[in-house]
Every structure is written in structure tokens, then in C-alpha cells.
Amino acid sequence: MANVVVVGSQWGDEGKGKIVDWLSEQADVIVRFQGGHNAGHTLVIDGVSYKLSLLPSGVVRGKLSVVGNGVVLDPHAFVAEVERLAAQGITVTPESLRIAENVTLILSLHQELDALRENSNSGTRIGTTKRGIGPAYEDKVGRRAIRLMDLADLNALPAKIDRLLTHHNALRKGLGQDEISAQAIYDELASVADKVLPYMDSVWRLLDGERKAGKRILFEGAQGALLDIDHGTYPFVTSSNTVAGQAAAGSGLGPGSIDYVLGITKAYTTRVGEGPFPTEQQNEIGDFLGTRGHEFGTVTGRKRRCGWFDAVLVRQTVCTSGITGIALTKLDVLDGLDEIKICVAYELDGQRIDYLPASQAAQERAVPIYETLPGWKESTEGARSWADLPAQAIKYVRYVEELIGAPVALLSTSPEREDTILMQNPFQD
Questions:
Q1: Annotated binding-site members for IMP
Q2: Where are the alpha helices (DSSP H) in 27-132?
Q3: Whether residue 171 is found in the same domain as residue 223
Q4: Same domain for 30 and 154?
Q5: What is the DSSP letter of 147?
Q6: Residues whose CB is less than 8 angstroms from the CB of residue 207 and which lie 6 or more positions away in sequence, other chains included
């Protein structure tokens, strides 16, 4: 039995929701291993849409779901999401969901700091969702974070809050903001403690037991590999590692527990927020892709930037995440185009290169080199076998495989789960 990691191979928003839902039905345990409630995905089950931003997709199917230690958790947002699902008939209980005891908490002061920086004119704008994710990770690595287990001992909490505020109030003073009282933070945490603590567990022990019992584990990431704090388009990235290797560190299981890495890959490219985007099309092609692909963020509703498929970037992600196979999504969005371009390399200062340089300045100077393929007029929407696809669509998919150095394991042709062409089941690798 294989354990599978799902990662986005671009800048996120690749259509992970549908694929993760399909895999979660086969899995016994679903683990979220990084990020916060700043990214989400939509599951469509029997015509009903469920928008998740923090909880693992397994909660919708009643599977054991785990929020790993690599996540930063806003306890109030967590409670609100549980309540939203309850209103849709999905009951989340401590029997179906466990949260790592050592998970870092997002507080209101993190959200305020995020917004202060993002709204300033000091050159710090990177396009965050202002949900406090980055500042919470800063406190984690600064060793001053409040963690879930701290809510179980309210008597010891004031000293930890004082240590946290020593940093934050000095920062706030420098930004011209009022100081925050320790009592306000204490009340914020104490008010939610009883609602979150029943879900607390030693997740690494739980997962080790599930693994030894032969259970199938699905590791579910948020965002995409190009937003990774180390391997992404820094500084226009998220504040955590989003590559597949984080599944081990962010859950407490060793890397030997990972058997298959599935990279979710959109048949074109999109990006939300600031940062380099070599193949972006700020023209009628970009408008076509955005309109046909309904390219708006699950969590924020922000319009996504759109462009041609960038094989250079995905090939790089195949390396940095050790991708075994990809799930190619939204092929149907390309229906009707006369021609389709694919970026196969870049030109940088007169030289052809086959990778995205790490330097921000070099990324901005990189010019895409395209190859042009004929499009197709027939519809691919809803196709469930290769025989249903136009010949040119098949050629496009095969060329993508060749360029990125990884096979297409699944091909998605609509948001509906059944509209999928399966070549390789990751759980049966």
C-alpha cells in the first residue's frame, strides 16, 4: 500500500481539490502538513460545493483527518470553518479530526501585523492574504510562539504571552501602533481553548501507529511548490516549505513513509499576488484563460493572473519535490484556441537557460522561449478516456510529459470527479 503526497507544481490553484477528494476516498488518513487558512480548495460532491481553507479534505468524507505540526492554526478560524461545515451537514468531531499538540497558533496580532506590512508603502508588499500566516511562522522560528498545547495550561500562559509581547509591542511601537495588553491576548486564547483542545493529539505517534497498521496515508499540501520559502520565487512566496519533503517534517513521519508524489499541474499557468510570472498574458489570451477557467481564489476571491504553460517551472518542481507523476487539470479550458504556446526555455542576458534562476532580478529579466502547437476546436470537457480526446489535445499532453520529465498519471477534464482519465493510481503504484 502506497502513501501519497499531493503537491501543487506551480504557484497553487492547480485544481487540487478535486484530485485530493478522489484520492481521499481511497485513503484511510488525510494529513495537512503546512500552511494556514490562507489557501484553500473547493470540493464538489454530488453537486454540492465545500470550500475548505484549513481542514483536510477527508473531513467531508468522514475519514480520519490530521492537522500536522507544520501548519499554523488560527483557532477562531478553525472553529468558524467547523461551524460552516456543520451548516452544510458535515459534522467534524475529535474522532474524525486530530490536531498536533505542537502546532503554532495564529493570533489577532499576527493578522494586524500582516496587514500593516502589506498596506505600507515601504516596499514590503508581496501580495499576502493578510491572515497572519507569515508573522505566525516568524514567531515559530523565533521560539516565542504560542502553541496549541499551551492552551491546556492557562496558568502558565501569561508568562508565554509576556515573552511574545516583548517582541510584538516593540515592533508595534516602531510602526506607530498602540501596544497590546497581555490580558487581551489571554482572553482571546482562553475564550476558544475549550473548543479546540478536544482535537489535540500527539500526531506523530498517531500517524506512526496508522502507518504500522498498513493504513493508506494521504499528505495534502496547500499552495504550490513555486511558493516554497526556499525553492519558490522569493520573496514573493509563502512562509512555509510547500515542496513534498515538508510532508515528513510537517507531520512527524520520516521520509521513508512517502511512496508516491503526485504533482497537480494546470494545463496553463496562473498566479495570485505579486511576483515574477514569465509566461503571463496581459491580453485577450489571459482574459480567455481567466474567464474560461473561472480563475478566482477560493479563499480571497482575488482574480488570478493567467498565462501559457511553463514547462521550465514544472520541470524544476518535478526535481525539487521528487514528483512521481502529475495530475494534469483544466485541459478543457484550452478548447477552441487556434494555437497553444508552451514555454520550453528562457533567454537571460542573451543566453538560453533551462531553469528559473533564484535571483529576483534575474527572474524579472528572464524572457520565455515558446514553441507553438496547433489547438483543437472539439470539446474535451467531460472526457473520460483517451478515445474521447481530439488528436491535438493528446499531442499536447504527450509533449507536456516529454518537456517536464514526468508522466501524466491523471487527466482532469472538468470539476466533476468522474470526468477524469486515469493512467496510474498513486495508491496502487
A1: 13-16, 38-41, 129, 143, 223, 238, 302
A2: 75-87, 108-118
A3: no
A4: no
A5: B
A6: 29, 31, 66, 217, 251, 252, 253
Q: Is 195 a catalytic residue?
A: no
CATH number, residue 419: 3.90.170.10
Q: Is 52 helix (H, G, I), strand (E, B) or coil?
A: strand
Domain boundary (151, 179, 196) is at 196
Q: What is the pLDDT along the chain (429 residues), one digit of tens a residue?
A: 689 999 999 998 898 878 888 898 899 999 999 999 876 667 777 778 888 888 998 898 889 999 999 999 999 999 999 999 999 999 999 999 999 999 999 999 999 998 888 877 555 566 667 789 999 999 999 999 999 999 999 999 999 999 999 999 999 999 899 999 999 999 999 999 999 999 999 999 999 999 999 999 999 988 899 999 999 999 999 999 999 999 999 999 999 999 999 999 999 999 988 899 999 999 999 999 999 998 987 666 778 999 999 999 999 999 999 999 999 999 999 999 999 999 999 999 999 999 999 999 999 999 999 999 999 999 999 999 999 999 999 999 999 999 999 999 999 998 887 889 999 999 986
CATH number, residue 15: 3.40.440.10
Task: Please check whether residues 287 and 383 belong to one and the same domain.
Answer: yes
Whether 41 sits among the annotated catalytic residues: the reply is yes
76, 140, 231, 341: the catalytic one is 140
Domain range for 183: 104-196
Number of domains in the chain: 3
CA 307, CA 295: separation in Å to the nearest integer? 11
The residue among 196, 225, 244 that closes a domain is: 196
Binding site per annotation, positions: 12-18, 38-42, 129, 143, 223, 238, 298-304, 330-332, 412-414
Query: Is the domain of 417 the same as that of 303?
Result: yes
Answer yes or no: do 96 and 118 share one domain: no
Of these residues, 13, 74, 228, 310, which one is catalytic? 13
Binding positions for substrate: 298-304
Q: Kindly state the helix (H) or strand (E) to which residue 351 belongs, with its residue range.
A: strand 351-353
Rounded Cα distance, 151 and 156, in Å: 9
- Of residues 21, 37, 41, 168, which has the active-site annotation? 41
Judge residue 142's burial from the number of C-beta atoms within 10 Å of its C-beta, 0-12 exposed, 13-18 middle, 19 or more buried.
Answer: exposed
- Binding site, annotated residues for GTP: 12-18, 40-42, 304, 330-332, 412-414
**242 and 272 both lie in a single domain:** no
DSSP letter, residue 233? S
Is 51 one of the annotated active-site residues of the chain?
A: no
